[in-house]
């Protein structure tokens, strides 16, 4: 098993994945809110 040295890991892929997750979550919440507003207007 390879030895682990603190501070030597490349976190670029982790940061890109997290940014993608944040962007997806933001768009999903905005989409859900728009859907709920439209649903309230139709059923109003």
Automatic annotation (TrEMBL):
The chain crosses the membrane at residues 21-42. Residues 4-43 form the Cytochrome c oxidase subunit IV bacterial aa3 type domain. Coiled coil: none annotated. Pfam families: COX4_pro_2 (PF07835). It comes from the Bacteria. Keywords: Membrane, Transmembrane, Transmembrane helix. This is Aa3 type cytochrome c oxidase subunit IV.
């Amino acid at each position: 098993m390879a030895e682990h040295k603190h501070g030597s890991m490349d976190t670029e892929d982790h940061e890109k994945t997290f940014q993608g997750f944040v962007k997806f979550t933001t768009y999903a919440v905005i989409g859900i809110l728009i859907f709920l507003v439209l649903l309230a207007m139709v059923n109003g």
